[in-house]
Amino acid sequence: MATNKLENLLKSNGNGELRALVKRAQSMCALTAALSAALPGEFADSIVAANIRENGELIVIARSSAWAARLRFEADTLNRAARSTGASVTGVSVRVTQSST
């Protein structure tokens, strides 16, 4: 049973669950890069990750609370950048990473 499940995860024909997970991660990485590129230079490393929920809400994860505050002022820019990737965005939410560093 476990072997069958692993086989389904690793299918190379593009239908495996792992393939879908990798594709989703690549999409999130591309979105994060597009958002970072749309911001002024000093914001280059302020975004840790970004995602768009099923309801269209753009979630941006900031490196610190200070960066989160600054990114909230850039919500319109973030919204436009996300839409330029083809995403349908209904709103922007900026959060702070839970990093232990």
Task: Pick out its properties.
101 residues, alpha+beta, GMP Synthetase, Chain A, domain 3, 3-stranded mixed sheet, 18% strand
Write the layout of secondary structure elements.
Blueprint: H1 2-10, H2 17-38, E1 47-52, E2 57-62, H3 65-72, H4 75-84, E3 91-96
Parallel strand pairs: 2-3
Antiparallel strand pairs: 1-2
Helix pairs in contact: 2-4
Describe the 3D structure.
49% of the residues lie in helices and 18% in strands. The termini are far apart. The longest helix has 22 residues, at 17-38. It is an alpha+beta fold. Helix 2 (17-38) crosses helix 4 (75-84). It has a three-stranded mixed beta sheet. The protein has helices at residues 2-10, 17-38, 65-72, 75-84, and strands at residues 47-52, 57-62, 91-96. Strand 1 (47-52) and strand 2 (57-62) form a beta hairpin. The protein is elongated. The chain has a single domain, classed as GMP Synthetase, Chain A, domain 3 (2-Layer Sandwich). It is built from four helices and three strands, in the order ααββααβ.
Shape category: elongated
Helix/strand-derived category reads: alpha+beta
The figure for the number of domains is: 1
- The name of the CATH topology is GMP Synthetase, Chain A, domain 3
Number of helices: 4
Number of strands: 3
Largest sheet: 3 strands, mixed
Instruction: Calculate the terminal CA-CA distance, rounded to whole Å.
Output: 40 Å
CATH class: Alpha Beta
Order of helices and strands: HHEEHHE
Indicate the CATH architecture: 2-Layer Sandwich
